[in-house]
């Protein structure tokens, strides 16, 4: 299928990835080949077939809404690349 | 033969007779790791001191009269995408190179309660995306049977560790064949349980509707013991099945008389190599000799499993991997202008090629304008694939097939061609789409390389799977066979 460099740039943006020009061309080629292969699914008539998102026939698993145990802030923040008090710190947003 | 070359149940018998200690077993394992892991590179992290300390603690309990349970003191390796509290869990990705989980996966707590000894964390394809362990962000693993070949993947480190005596048992995870394919390539037993039988809590998510943790062992008995230890409903995983599980060792019966074994004809077409075909046909003949009824059956949508899988799994992955943004854990680029730039730089430097490829493929399949044609279409085809199995199981108790089209391939052979690499999972993917249990057991050797036989069961049909796998194993003599590299150091 025809996949353009602009298409690759669009999905890279959606994926929050930046690519070099060489990578863009590599992914364009590889993704096109995989999507070509995926086009095989169009051979099948699925007009009246319901989708399967999940195989286990479980619906709406409920539980009581109770206060339970949770991780203490020190453990939650232990892997933080940067922090301030009990917050994750990030570069400026605006 | 050294202690590290025995099965868990053999070691258990020796422990019960007080012939050996847990420390003896543990020392044997770490001696083997020191001898061979430079060449095999099965492990990302090894925890010798902690393991020995734990072994000594358990030995003391035994000396004070505690009876060892079936897995007490057994050294088990853990795939590095299963969270271990206080022990680095990387998913073989640079983006998680320094991640130390603040909690244990449910399976880890369950193994601890069985007094298992964790040896370390094993190598894998980054985020479990791959079929050769060459996509590890750190280093590739070698197949113990032929060092120039891949161990399979994504649980390649776990498979290689069990095959080489660097662990007695291991945990892997299987999203499209990632336990069974490396088990086949390394000549060990690998089982993917029914979706929902084993809690996924603490398993780093790849494709949530397909992922399942399972055992990798030297024989079928050990697989049953490990399954006993890890299965069960878990309130922390809302997709886990609320049911009671039997003691799976009760299915280790050498009797399959009258069992209906289906042979899906679509799994024996041109893609199958002659050497693997020969071994599977021999396995079918063996089962027939043992009294099984061999039934030819059909799974008409088999050819559509691979394309459906490669839209569904990347779709789920693109969403699951959105969490790696450098905010709360893992790698953060420290030269970003603003927060979005930080997300982009951290992800672009932290993820490897295959992970990026699948995130983009998934984002594409889920994006506006393509969702119906790709992702929704794939979910509908998933229904057809599931129905194929339901129809086949009306006349069969279990299905037999090859685990892989060929034995282990050479390193570098498929790494530049993603689609060809994906094809190596052609016989395992459909099982995940349908949520079924399946097991790969060693079926024989060709040119010194192991070949796996796959059995596929009905939902929660693990017992029948273990029974047929056990009976097949009893009739073969591959269990004592060890890789040449192990024979050399003995």
Explain how this protein is built:
- The complex is a heterodimer of chains A (94) and B (490).
- With 94 residues, chain A is mainly alpha-helical.
- Chain A has a domain at 5-43: Histone, subunit A (Orthogonal Bundle), CATH 1.10.20.
- Chain A is 35% helix and 4% strand.
- Chain A has three helices and two strands, in the order H-H-H-E-E.
- In chain A, a hairpin with a 2-residue loop joins strand 1 and strand 2.
- In chain A, helix 1 crosses helix 2 (21-38).
- Chain A is flat.
- Chain B has 490 residues and is α/β, with parallel strands linked by helices.
- Chain B has an eleven-stranded mixed sheet, sandwiched between helices.
- In chain B, helix 7 (220-230) runs antiparallel to helix 15 and helix 9 (305-320) packs across helix 11.
- The mean pLDDT of chain B is 96.
- Chains A and B meet through helix 1 and helix 2 of A and helix 9, helix 10, helix 11, helix 12 and helix 13 of B.
Strand order of the largest sheet of chain A: 1-2
- Which sequence of strands runs across the widest sheet of chain B? 1-3-2-4-6-5-10-11-9-7-8
What about the largest sheet of chain A?
2 strands, antiparallel
| Percent of residues in helices of chain A | 25-40%
Strand portion of chain B, in percent?
5-15%
- What oligomeric state do the depicted chains represent? heterodimer
> What is the CATH top level name of the domain at 3-252 and 457-489 in chain B?
Alpha Beta
Q: What is the CATH fold-level name of the domain at 5-43 in chain A? A: Histone, subunit A
Question: In what range is the share of β-strand residues of chain A?
Answer: under 5%
Low-confidence stretches of chain A: none
Chains forming the largest contact: A-B, 50 and 71 residues
Please, what is the CATH homologous superfamily of the domain at 5-43 in chain A? Glu-tRNAGln amidotransferase C subunit, N-terminal domain
CATH topology of the domain at 3-252 and 457-489 in chain B: Amidase signature (AS) enzymes
Q: From the helix content, strand content and strand pairing of chain B, which structural class follows?
A: alpha/beta
**What is the number of strand segments of chain B?**
11
How many angstroms separate the termini of chain B?
A: 7 Å
Q: How many DSSP E strands of chain A?
A: 2
User: What is the class of the domain at 5-43 in chain A in the CATH system?
Assistant: Mainly Alpha
Cα-atom radius of gyration of chain B:
21 Å
The string of secondary-structure elements of chain B, in order, is: HHEHEHEHEHEEHEHEHHHHEHHEEHH
């Amino acid at each position: 299928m025809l996949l353009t460099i602009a298409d690759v740039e669009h999905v890279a943006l959606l994926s929050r990835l930046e690519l070099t020009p060489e990578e863009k061309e590599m992914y364009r080629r590889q993704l096109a080949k995989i999507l070509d292969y995926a086009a095989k699914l169009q051979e099948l008539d699925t007009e009246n077939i319901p989708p399967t998102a999940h195989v286990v026939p479980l619906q709406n698993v409920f539980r009581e809404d109770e206060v339970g145990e949770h991780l203490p802030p020190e453990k939650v923040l232990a892997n933080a690349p940067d922090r301030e008090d009990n917050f994750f710190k990030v570069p400026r947003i605006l | 033969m050294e202690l590290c070359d025995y099965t868990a149940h053999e070691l258990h018998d020796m422990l019960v007779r007080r012939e050996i200690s847990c420390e003896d077993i543990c020392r044997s394992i770490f001696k083997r790791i020191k001898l061979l892991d430079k060449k095999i590179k099965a492990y990302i992290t090894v925890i010798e001191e902690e393991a020995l300390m734990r072994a000594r603690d358990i030995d003391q309990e035994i000396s004070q009269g505690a009876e060892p349970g079936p897995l007490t003191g057994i050294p088990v390796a853990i795939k590095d995408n299963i969270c271990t509290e206080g022990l680095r869990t990387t998913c073989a990705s640079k983006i998680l190179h320094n991640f130390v989980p603040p909690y244990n996966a449910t399976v880890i707590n369950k193994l601890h309660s069985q007094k298992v000894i964790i040896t370390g964390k094993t190598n894998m394809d980054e985020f479990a995306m791959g079929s050769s362990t060459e996509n590890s962000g750190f280093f590739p693993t070698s197949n113990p049977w032929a060092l120039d070949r891949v161990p399979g993947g994504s649980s390649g480190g776990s498979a290689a560790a069990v095959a080489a005596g660097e662990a007695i048992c291991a945990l892997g995870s299987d999203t499209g064949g990632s336990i069974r394919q490396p088990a086949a390539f390394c000549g060990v037993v690998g089982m993917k349980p029914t979706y929902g039988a084993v809690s996924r809590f603490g398993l780093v998510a790849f494709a949530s509707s397909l992922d399942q943790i399972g055992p990798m062992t030297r024989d079928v008995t050990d697989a049953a013991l490990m399954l006993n230890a890890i299965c069960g409903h878990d309130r922390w995983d809302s997709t886990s099945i609320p049911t009671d599980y039997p003691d799976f060792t009760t299915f280790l019966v050498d009797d399959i008389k009258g069992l209906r074994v289906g042979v899906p004809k679509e799994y024996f077409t041109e893609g199958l190599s002659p050497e693997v075909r020969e071994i599977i046909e021999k396995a079918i003949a063996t089962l027939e000799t043992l009294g099984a009824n061999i039934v030819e059956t059909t799974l008409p949508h088999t050819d559509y499993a691979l394309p459906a899988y490669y839209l569904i799994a990347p779709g789920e992955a693109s969403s699951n991997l959105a969490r790696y943004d450098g905010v709360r854990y893992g790698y953060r680029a420290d030269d970003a202008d603003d927060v979005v730039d930080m997300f982009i730089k951290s992800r672009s430097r932290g993820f490897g090629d295959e992970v990026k490829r699948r995130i983009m493929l998934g984002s594409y399949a889920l994006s506006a304008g393509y969702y119906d044609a790709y992702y929704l279409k794939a979910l509908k085809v998933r229904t057809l694939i599931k129905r194929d199995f339901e129809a086949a199981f009306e006349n069969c108790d279990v299905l037999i097939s090859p685990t892989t089209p060929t034995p282990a391939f050479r390193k570098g052979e498929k790494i530049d061609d993603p689609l060809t690499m994906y094809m190596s999972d052609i016989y395992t993917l459909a099982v995940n789409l349908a949520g079924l249990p399946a097991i790969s057991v060693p079926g024989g050797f060709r040119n010194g390389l192991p070949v796996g036989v796959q059995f596929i069961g009905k939902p929660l049909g693990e017992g029948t799977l273990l029974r047929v796998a056990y009976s097949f194993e009893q009739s073969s003599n591959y269990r004592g066979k060890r890789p040449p590299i192990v024979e050399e150091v003995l």
